[in-house]
Structure formats: structure tokens, C-alpha cells
Design a protein that fits this description.
By secondary structure, this protein is an alpha+beta fold. Among the domains are: about 60 residues, OB fold (Dihydrolipoamide Acetyltransferase, E2P) (Beta Barrel), CATH 2.40.50.100; about 110 residues, no CATH class; about 90 residues, Elongation Factor Tu (Ef-tu), domain 3, CATH 2.40.30. About 30% of the residues lie in helices and about 40% in strands. The chain contains 7 helices and 24 strands. The strands form 7 sheets. A 6-stranded antiparallel β-barrel has the order 3-13-16-15-14-17. A 4-stranded antiparallel β-sheet has the order 4-12-11-6. A 3-stranded antiparallel β-sheet has the order 5-7-10. Helix 2 runs antiparallel to helix 3. The longest helix is centred in the N-terminal third of the chain and has 38 residues. The protein starts with a helix and ends with a helix. About 10% of the residues have low confidence.
């Protein structure tokens, strides 16, 4: 009799426990319960900077090229590579009997350059107007070659100017590339105008080639049909290149920290320009490719970045390698949290569980403009002192459960042990 009673009691108790366990812990349970969470973080503020490290080189702000007809015009070269020049310094003296012919060429070239300047300015204005109107399919084409008649016999002087800006744009990015290409060409024209005006302003009694700017002689082409002198302006910049998706991150006005030989560590600069067109494959780009080991499949995926330095710092030799840190995003006194704690993260909007006044995990929507080193910067949705928890299983609950958190612990480090002294630790551990 007792045997069957014991069996019945055991079955009843087991069934009671099983039913209660099911009601309490099953997925369909409606009984509120507390959840133990061992990962949480109280929100504090700090400065967060997203940085992009780039190799760069000291380069001139502008390069001016003075063209001379041929060797027969030049009487004597007065400069060599590396010489410093100022505005108006003589670069080469000309043959007196040929100076008038050279002056006619300069005057003809100036007229053509002014025409080209007007055409490019009009093209840029039209493109900017089209982009403002947001037309999905716009085009602008300018094709002009200038040959100017000059002299008693109306002899045609071929100046060699060519404007060819053809744009077929379907979106804002294409507009930006087209405008960038036209602006780049316009800057070249304006530099050539400065050179020509400097030559025409000199005294015709003492014909010579003069420097249009303060700078350094970079190259002298002394022989051949087309002689030329390249002059680096005295103002220096850092030239680097954005690859692939880096172009989307770097913006004009971004702060830059630079260091290199001859440049004080931590020297600040500013992104001066971000080109929207592929960079020319010149010596600067070739040097950058030699320094940067990252493989790039697309040979056109390089856009020139120019960085202006503080003009008061000591100048370094052209071509000096510089390490530049571009701060592409920065937030002062910002709240941040671990990026992998974000739920439903999409286009800068996410959700995180935040403990409310009742001790429950309340889903809270936040905005995260950027992330840096596994932490997401929060611009809206959280405030100082909020406690964010991380527990993936919270998403399975049909209600907002209360939370149990572990007591905070502070384990002393090695420096604390040394500062406090091991004898004091023994004293407090053995005191009764």
C-alpha cells in the first residue's frame, strides 16, 4: 500500500514541477521574470575621431610653365634647376632681332587664352545650372581650336590651344566630374595667362624671359623646337591620392595631422581640394604608387588630394615624404558604444536595449553617423548615464523583462599593487 502511495505522490510532484517549469520557462510563457545580463555599459562622453592614414609628398601649390619658341630666340640662359626666383627675375635673355616675333606670339596666345577662359567659365556655369535643375539627362559640349591672325601679312600663328569639354551626365556624380575637369582646365588657362602677362609687361628695349611668380626653377628644356621653363611656386602643399571608396570619406576642409623630415610632428593642415577626376599619371602619382603597397585593380581609381599646411612653418624640400593623418569624421564629447551591440543597424539608424527606471530593458532607437575602431558614435537617442545592455536573447521575449546585472568589480592592476604595498594587502586580508 505504501509503495503505491509513494509512486503516486512522486508522479504528482513531478507533474506539478513539470507543469510549472513549462509555464515559467516556455517560449509561450506570460509569467514575467528577470533576465540575467552580464554585458552592459554606462554611457559616458569622449572625443572620437575617424582617421585615414595616407602617404604624401611636399609639392608646389602651382606649377607655372614659360614657353619659348626655339633655340634661335634665346641668347643666354640665366638660370638652372634649383635656383630660387622672384617675380620679374630674368630667366633667359633673347636675341634682339627676334624679340618682336616672340612678342607677337605671346600677344596672339593671350587673345586665345582669354577666349578659352571665357568658354570654360560659360561651360562651368551651364553645368552648375543643369545640376541645380536636376535634369536626369543633360549634355554640354564645347569644341574650339584657336589660330590667331597677327602681323602685317596676316600670317596664321598656331598657338596650340584646344578646348574640348564634352559631358554626358545622368547623375550628380557625373556633373561633379565634368565640373571638376572643366575647373582643372580653367586653372591651367589662368596660370598660362599669368605667365604671358608677365612677359608682355616687361621693357621691350631689353627683351628677356622673366619669372611670373616667386618660386624655384624645377626644369629647363634648353634644346629642341619647343623650349620651356617649369617654375614651382614658393607656396607648398601635400599631395596624396584617394583610392576607391576613400574619395567618399575625404572632404574639403577636413583637418589633417602631418609629420615628416623637416616637418614638426603634429603639424596641422587642411584638405584644400579633392579632385573628382582621375589623377594624371605624373611623377607624383608614380611616387605615391611606389610608396603605397595596397593593390588597386582599377588604374583610374586614384583621385588627387591636396592638403594646405600652415604657411608659418619651415618649408621642406619638394618631394619630401610626409605621413598625413586625415580626420574624416570627428565628434567632440560624444557618446559611443560597441558597434556589434547595435540591433537592426541600417543607414545610420539602429536599436539598443536601455534600462529604464523600472529596471526593464526598453528598446531605444538611436542614430549613429559613423563608427571608428569597433565603436559607433551616437548622435541622438542616448544621454549620459544611460545603461545599454547586450543580450541577444532579449529579442525572444514578448514583453519587456526586468534585468539582473552583476555587481561591478574593480580588480587592482600591477601599478595599484605596487603603490599600496603587499604588506597592507596581507594586513587587511588577515584582520579579524
Amino acid at each position: 500500500m505504501n509503495k503505491w502511495v509513494n509512486i503516486a505522490v512522486a508522479i504528482a510532484v513531478s507533474a506539478f514541477l513539470a507543469i510549472n517549469m513549462y509555464l515559467l520557462f516556455s517560449n509561450k510563457s506570460v509569467i514575467p521574470k528577470a533576465v540575467y545580463v552580464d554585458q552592459y555599459e554606462r554611457m559616458t562622453s569622449s572625443d572620437v575621431n575617424e582617421k585615414l592614414a595616407k602617404e604624401g609628398f611636399i609639392a608646389p601649390m602651382e606649377t607655372y610653365t614659360v614657353y619659348i619658341g626655339n633655340e634661335e630666340i634665346v641668347d643666354t640662359w640665366l638660370v638652372k634647376e634649383g635656383d630660387a626666383v622672384t617675380v620679374g627675375d630674368d630667366i633667359a635673355s633673347l636675341q634682339t632681332e627676334r624679340a618682336d616675333g616672340q612678342r607677337s606670339v605671346w600677344e596672339a596666345e593671350r587673345e586665345a587664352l582669354l577666349d578659352q577662359q571665357y568658354t570654360l567659365s560659360s561651360t562651368i556655369s551651364e553645368l552648375e545650372s543643369d545640376r541645380a535643375d536636376a535634369k536626369s539627362d543633360s549634355s554640354s559640349k564645347v569644341n574650339k581650336q584657336d589660330n590667331v591672325n597677327e602681323g602685317k601679312d596676316d600670317k596664321t600663328i598656331k598657338v596650340g590651344l584646344n578646348v574640348d569639354v564634352q559631358v554626358d551626365v545622368a547623375q550628380d556624380g557625373s556633373f561633379a566630374q565634368a565640373i571638376g575637369a572643366a575647373e582643372q582646365e580653367l586653372a591651367t588657362v589662368e596660370r598660362r595667362l599669368i605667365v604671358i602677362d608677365a612677359q608682355l609687361s616687361q621693357d621691350s628695349a631689353n627683351p628677356s624671359i622673366v619669372s611670373p611668380v616667386n618660386g624655384v626653377i624645377a626644369n629647363v628644356t634648353r634644346h629642341g623646337e619647343n623650349l620651356a621653363v617649369d617654375i614651382y611656386s614658393s607656396q607648398q602643399v601635400i599631395v596624396t591620392y584617394a583610392k576607391n571608396d576613400e574619395w567618399q570619406k575625404i572632404g574639403q576642409g577636413d583637418r589633417v595631422l602631418a609629420q615628416g623630415d623637416g616637418i614638426e610632428k603634429g603639424t596641422e593642415g587642411t584638405v584644400l581640394s579633392v579632385s573628382a577626376v582621375p589623377a594624371n599619371d605624373d611623377k607624383w602619382l608614380q611616387a605615391y604608387k611606389a610608396m603605397d603597397s595596397t593593390a588597386v585593380k582599377n588604374p583610374l581609381a586614384y583621385n588627387e588630394i591636396r592638403i594646405a599646411l600652415d604657411p608659418n612653418i619651415q618649408q621642406a624640400p619638394f618631394g619630401t615624404n610626409v605621413n598625413a593623418i586625415v580626420i574624416v569624421n570627428e565628434a567632440q564629447d560624444a557618446i559611443s558604444l560597441k558597434e556589434d551591440w547595435l540591433l537592426n543597424n541600417f543607414e545610420g539608424v539602429a536599436t539598443v536595449p536601455v534600462i529604464d527606471k523600472t529596471g526593464r530593458a526598453k528598446p531605444t532607437k538611436i542614430q549613429t553617423p559613423f563608427s571608428w575602431k569597433t565603436r559607433a558614435v551616437v548622435s541622438n537617442g542616448l544621454k549620459l548615464g544611460d545603461i545599454v545592455v547586450y543580450e541577444p536573447n532579449l529579442a525572444h521575449y514578448t514583453y519587456t523583462p526586468q534585468l539582473l546585472l552583476p555587481l561591478p568589480t574593480d580588480v587592482p592592476g600591477k601599478a595599484d599593487w605596487k603603490a599600496f604595498g603587499w604588506k597592507n594587502y596581507v594586513k587587511y586580508m588577515t584582520v579579524k
